[in-house]
Amino acid sequence: MREIVLILFFLVENGAPKSLVVIPEDPSEQARVAANDFLWHIEKLSGARLPLKTEAELTQADRNGALVAIGATRLAKEAGIDVSKLPPEGYVVRSAANRLFLLGRQDVLPATKKELRGTYYAVSSFLERDLGVRWLWPGELGTVVPERKTLPVPAIDRTGQPKLAQRKIRNALTNRKFIEGMKYVPTDPAQRQRMIGESDAWLRRMGVGTRVQIHAGHAFTRWYERYGEEHPDYFALHLNGSREWKNLGKPKNVKICVSNPAVVEQWIANAKELLKRNPSRQSFSASANDGYYTGHCTCDRCRSWDEPGAPDTYTFYDVTAQGRTTYRYVSLTDRYLRFYNRLAEALQKAAPGKFVGGYAYGTWRALPLREKVHPNVIVGFVGLGYFDEERREKDLAYWDGWSQLAERLYLRPNLLHGGNGLPAVYVHKLAHDLRRCFDSGMFATDFDSLAHHWATQGLNYYVLAKLLADPRADVDRIVDEYCRVGFGAAADHVKGYFAQLEKLTDRIAREFPEVSKRLTRELELKKRVRWYHMAPTWYTTETLEALEVKLDAAERLAEDEAARARVRFLRDGLLFAKLRAEALSAWLAMLRMPRDDRSAIRAARKSVIEKSEPLKSYYRHHATTWVICPQLVRMISLERPVRPRKK
Ligand SMILES: [Zn+2]
User: Fold this and answer.
1) What is the pTM of this model?
2) How far is the CA of 303 from the centre of ligand 1 (A)?
3) What CATH number is attached to the domain comprising 102?
4) Potential cystine with 490: which of 4, 143, 184, 554 (Cβ 3.0-4.6 Å)?
């Protein structure tokens, strides 16, 4: 059956421009960027560059012709479109007679002082749903633009609003880890700027954004420099009887004596200070600083806030002792949750209706035994990951428990750092988990961070962004579409490649706990092995060759240059896995050498250097190609990284 579509007018007909793009007389930055985005894609699709004017520049003849009005134009108002009636972040795609209107809520959210992205979403929605554009990854190769010389505008009347109040994925290109990585992989600053622009555009087009303001991060990172001298009592008591943090770790990782009432007073005073600067601010963070195995207060009062019967115990480090000795101790959830609750009570007196934001994180992410959650506490659950199935199942159970306790719960995973750039696919588990979280009350997300390993993990990123836009979307349809639009005739083989990778990733997740224990023993490590110690266990020559066979078949079938280039892009990612696994194997062989056999260690070091050379040149070549992000891959060291276990 053929669908009958009423065509109202043409944007482009047989490659010739047939309409004009118009933005408000005094356009916002968003309207300008959205209009340029629109023009760029139309030109890619059809070869035609549509003219762009502000409303003030329109002639009567322009007004009589076909117009695409982007942003809050008078034309939209005259057509009866009132975006202020839309929900926050809402957008409209509407055509009528010879007009197409693309606009949305763009007001500044007082709490964040940031603009809502409604107009961006209107443009992306039109490009994606009505013109068939897809953004598989940032940059030109990842942008799929079907070639169409004629672009009709049918009758459309659509409004939308992203389902989750916040769909945040942080961009790793702007974080500290990337800057540190530039020491190992020199990166042209202009190229980095280009990449930041392309990746921000990708995030925006995929619907990442927010209509709420959540502050829940590590809250005491500057306390030591601010109060260390004057208020030593604010800080954690160590096992050696001192509250001094100097020389024990980074100042930003200092821990607080949270049972000290003076700490609550100081925190409230600081919150009031912040409120003076922005009275619309909604929440204030209260999470303990990072480094969740070290430095927590051992004073009697703080300890009395813990639950000795808590089933979850962890190995903590005593940083004050010689050689960092360890001790077992219970989960800190009841302690920190009691702290959040106390702050919330005090905050209700100081500023009614405002929220305390706190993580359920690391050694305090297990469920509390005693504490409930104050209704004015927002909990950010830091968990989930796809390289350790035991851990994932535990985290899912924790999430379910937290969802019963907290009125406001959001997901703040670190899972995108998993796998350290090696090829992995976990889209089905991701879809299952996001749906479970969404169905049990998740109102927001904050993913740390988009690591830009696009050839090796890009399918996960794409599916994630799609699911954040609609957590109930069908993951198989998303994957099918990714393969079909990106790879055409090679789609089935590419899909087979991803399926094989997903099997491998599942196996890694199942075997992780066992392999981790075995290697920790075998290498006599004091700490548990890291992911990169284990990678060669799974990324073997045979496994990688079997994956390559799939891509060979895909490349033979790919019909056009763009599809072939995309298969080669995936292949470049697989090459990374091969080089990395070889270098890591040589490095592990070095770690296994008997400590007293100097000449054997020298020979092993030489082999590590040899195997690292091709990897280094690969990193240089791919510093800015989107294949993987070498700046974020953990570098391997030529030194034995850990001291031998104490006998
Ligand atoms: Zn204490």
Assistant:
1) 0.96
2) 7
3) 3.30.379.10
4) 554
